[in-house]
Design brief:
about 70% helix; single chain; 3-stranded antiparallel sheet; mainly alpha; 3-stranded mixed sheet; elongated
Length: about 550
Amino acid sequence: MTNIILIPVAVAIISILAGSGIGYAVRKNVWEKKAQNAQNDADHILADAKTQVTAAKAEANAQKQATKALKQSAENTKKEKILEAQEKIQDYRQKVEDELNVKRDDISRKTNRLKQREDTLDHKKSLLDERENGLTQKENQLKQQKTNLDKKISDADKLVETRKQKLYEVAGLNKEQAKKLVLSQSSDELVKERADMIRNSNEEVKAKADHYARQVIIDAIQSSAADTVAETTVSVVDLPNEEMKGRIIGREGRNIRSFEALTGIDLIIDDTPKVVTLSGFDSIRREIAKRAMERLIKDGRIHPARIEEMVDKARKEVNDDIYEAGESALMELGIHKMNPELVKILGRLKYRTSYGQNVLAHSIEVAKLAGTMAAELGLNEKLAVRAGLLHDIGKAVDHDIEGSHVEIGVELTRKYHEPDVVVNAIAAHHGDVPKLSFIAELVVAADTLSSARPGARSESLENYIRRLTKLEKIAKSYKGVKQAYAIQAGREVRVMVEPDEISDDRITVLAHDIKNQVEKELDYPGNIKITVIREKRVVAIAK
């Protein structure tokens, strides 16, 4: 039983051992193959490693060579930079040393100046100390002198008061009378001073202005050559014979009535041989009537229908002449642009007079004078000419429109958009408003020159005599005036004074006062000269 059991066990053991041997042989074979394979792999790896090592060594040698070259280049660059830096350091050191030397020299100079200034200040201080001592001494002296002076002033006041009382007693004057005497003496001195001031002022103004102003005015006058036409309130028409008077009158006066009604002009037929007279204040209507009458006389057919036809033709002709007169004035003065209505109104001035002076001719003359003076003074010549031409434009329609010719002229020029300078010159040429430009001043001066020209204007005898009488009356109203005479058509007043009442200094003040009163109270063209004459004669007869 035991054997039976051991046999399988032995078989099993043997099987196990045989299996183990076979397994070991198989595993050994496998392991040998794996080892051979591993050996081969190791050889390959070793060969690759050797190749890589060789390549790495070659690369390392190349890098080493490159590193060596870079190191050499860096060394060279370093040496160059060091040398460059050393040069810069040397240059900078030299520059700093130079600047230090300059500063040392500057400091040395300033030190010397300060030392000199210190010496000067010390010297001045010593002088000031000496001066202060001197001033202190003088101050003490002045205090003493002031004390003495106050005492002397007090004594003098007492002495003056004593002498006043004695003078009052000797002269027989009281205090008020003495005061009047002193004030009278002071007044004479003030009059003398005032006369000297007026005299010096006039001489200074004349010295600066007379020559230049005279030259400008002379040039302006010489360049103006306007003709003067005297117009009146009547026109005379010549007749071929006396029979024509009856034909003009017509049956029962129908012709003359028709003529007067159509023209607005009075027809005067009197005993004057071969003439009829046309009378009217409107010069344009009078011109129309004159031309119509001349046409009727020439035609010979005089009846109401013919009169109406001739008056219409004459009116058309006069209107055309008015416009042509305005255009002619513009062309003569070189004015190229103006409203046609204003040109027509300007032409009406041809038939308007002022103090016997034709207003259109006067306006052209003023324009030329103002333009010439403006050119001489460097002002706008064209604007001055325009303002001078239009300054009396209101006189063309002042019979038809209410208001003064200045107001009418301002409204007309504003209506037709004239420049503000022109409008102001018109408004100010009689002093109604302030003058806002030099051109306005020139228009006033030119207007005065044109009006004051001898022969330019005529005045009625009554107005002339009234003005002369007023001039003499003003001059005689002053105390000390013995006689006064208006001469040279009222353009000069000769004043004779009492030599015992008016001194040489006071006559200057008297002339100035008379001038101011004349300017204030009288209206006149041009200038009036005031001449005061003081004459004292002493006659002694030797026997």
